[in-house]
Design brief:
It is a single chain. The chain has two domains: 3-202 and 373-459, Aminopeptidase (3-Layer(aba) Sandwich), CATH 3.40.630; 204-261 and 289-370, 2-Layer Sandwich (Alpha-Beta Plaits). The protein is globular and about 80 Å long. Strands 1, 2, 3, 6, 7, 8, 15, 16 and 17 form a nine-stranded mixed beta sheet that branches. The protein has a four-stranded antiparallel beta sheet with strand order 11-13-9-14, covered by helices on one side. By secondary structure, it is an alpha+beta fold. The longest helix has 23 residues, at 3-25. Helix content is 34%, strand content 22%. The structure holds ligand BES and manganese (II) ion (2 copies). Residues 93, 126, 161, 433-434 line the site of one manganese (II) ion.
């Protein structure tokens, strides 16, 4: 039985595969919100059951947070073939603002759109649809060939969207079980929504929540306005000072460890001819707003950033209230590159904010997740083999690209297990991940499954 038989089986099984994905999408496994803890557990159970039905020796593994799903197939004496690990995450982001969804985020359906059929629902693209592409490829392989392509370990996480608090301890405790020849991670996208891609550079992430307090309770802004310190004014001024006029970030020492792009990468990225006008135009923007003198691809892949993700304080409800607030809050995140040190940046950021406080103000900081940037070493021939397999499926040469998002586990595979991460995914720029009306194109799902079958064939 040949690869073509496996691909034909995938084509024939697509409706059933879609039904299985819809079933998984109905489980509201929002990892960051404790109200959905039982649902995260249910999603893990669903995956264990599905893997077991496929013949995988799978189990739900408890952590202090949400469970991991680990599974194994094949054995060590598969001569010559590599031992692969497959990683995906079954947790999803919260759905708010709910009123902007066209339907219940956890009542998914296949919809016809002018651009073709899509699977609509929270987690369709990030990351349930993507993780099922691999499982479905293996299901077809097993059905057609009666055996596994090689030894494979499954590692499915339920805390990715909330900073993976249990991940590092779990990987350390189970290092022997999780160590493989390569880690396939399906949590990224195509390049410009049409070119297959392997991500070789990921940005790191650092989150901080800042609360500035001035008066000890909210005041009448007529009685106190003018004489009382306003913490929203104080925090706004600090936030405004985090970038200079050229778009550079002003936190002391921030650029320590930020490398310049190598000539080789610069040439390669120029070859990608990124169309930033379309990329921005699709979301209602026109001009790149990053550091002056940097190309659009540098801005999203290889330069660090500072963004305010949320800001609140005082009265934000309906109508109007003349309040002089006691507190002002902001959630601020940094995307990191190269060898930028998250801990050092957190410390320098806190020092900078604290030193900028006027009299009568106090500040509190709450840390959110952090992880350094990471990259993949593509010198292992498995990378070229996978790239060729992707090119064959999509009829466009697959590209090595960067990714502005963060997948901390990629670096952990290297540092904790000594395993190189190979990041391959089929998401599109307009999938609206983390946003209302998230979708995954049926093309992504179908060709994603076919891509994995080709990659498994090429690697074994
Ligand atoms: N799948 C994304 C990462 C991603 C984003 C890949 C965009 C390709 C394009 C992942 O689930 C994610 O959202 N990561 C978070 C970090 C996490 C700690 C919340 C991110 O990048 O913000
Ligand atoms: Mn993801
Ligand atoms: Mn995500």
């Amino acid at each position: 039985m040949s690869l073509d038989d496996v691909l034909a089986r995938i084509d024939a099984d697509l409706p059933a595969a879609t039904d299985r994905l819809l079933d998984l999408l109905r489980i509201p496994s929002i990892s960051t919100d404790p109200a959905f803890k039982a649902d995260c557990d249910r999603a893990a159970d669903w995956l264990v059951a599905d893997l077991k039905a496929l013949g995988v020796d799978a189990s739900k593994r408890p952590t202090p947070g949400h469970p991991m799903v680990v599974g194994h197939v094949g054995n060590a004496n598969n001569s010559g073939a590599p031992h692969l690990l497959f990683y995906g995450h079954y947790d999803v982001q919260p759905v708010d603002p709910l009123d902007l969804w066209d339907r219940d985020p956890f009542d998914p359906e296949v919809q016809d759109t002018p651009k073709g059929p899509v699977i609509r629902g929270r987690g369709a693209a990030d990351d349930k649809g993507q993780l099922m592409t691999f499982i479905e490829a293996l299901r077809a392989w097993k059905a057609v060939k009666g055996d596994w392509p090689c030894r494979i370990t499954f590692f499915l996480e339920g805390e990715e969207e909330s900073g993976s608090p249990s991940l590092v301890p779990f990987m350390k405790e189970n290092a022997d079980e999780l160590k493989t020849d390569i880690a396939l991670i399906c949590d990224t996208g195509l390049f410009e929504s049409k070119t297959p891609a392997i991500v070789t550079m990921l940005r790191g992430l650092l989150g901080e929540e800042v609360t500035v307090t001035a008066p000890k309770f909210d005041l009448h802004s007529g009685m106190y306005g003018g004489i009382a310190m306003n913490p929203i004014r104080v925090l706004s001024k600090i936030i405004a000072s985090l970038h200079d006029d050229t778009g550079r970030i002003t936190v002391p020492g921030f650029y320590d460890g930020v490398p310049e792009l190598s000539d080789a990468l610069e040439a390669q990225w120029q070859g990608l001819a990124f169309d930033h006008a379309t990329f921005l135009g699709d979301v209602g923007l026109s001009e790149p707003a990053g550091e002056q003198g940097r190309t659009p691809l540098e801005m999203i892949w290889s330069r660090p950033t500072c963004d305010v993700n949320g800001i609140w304080g005082g009265y934000t409800g309906a109508g109007f209230k003349t309040v002089l607030p006691s507190k002002a809050h902001a959630k601020i995140s940094f995307r990191l590159v190269g060898t930028q040190d998250p801990d050092a940046i957190r410390e320098n950021f806190r020092k900078m904010v604290t030193e900028a406080l006027p009299v009568d103000c106090t500040v509190e900081f709450a840390p959110h997740g952090s992880g350094p940037a990471s990259g993949a070493d593509t010198s292992d021939p498995m990378f070229e083999a996978a790239r060729q397999a992707l090119s064959n499926e999509w009829n466009i040469p697959a590209a090595y690209i960067g990714c502005g998002g963060s997948i901390p586990i990629a670096g952990y595979f290297q540092d904790i297990l000594g395993t190189e991460p190979m990041l391959i995914g089929f998401g599109k720029d307009d999938d609206a991940i983390h946003s209302p009306n998230e979708k995954y194109d049926m093309e992504s799902f179908h060709k994603g499954i076919r891509s994995w079958a080709r990659i498994l064939d090429a690697l074994t």
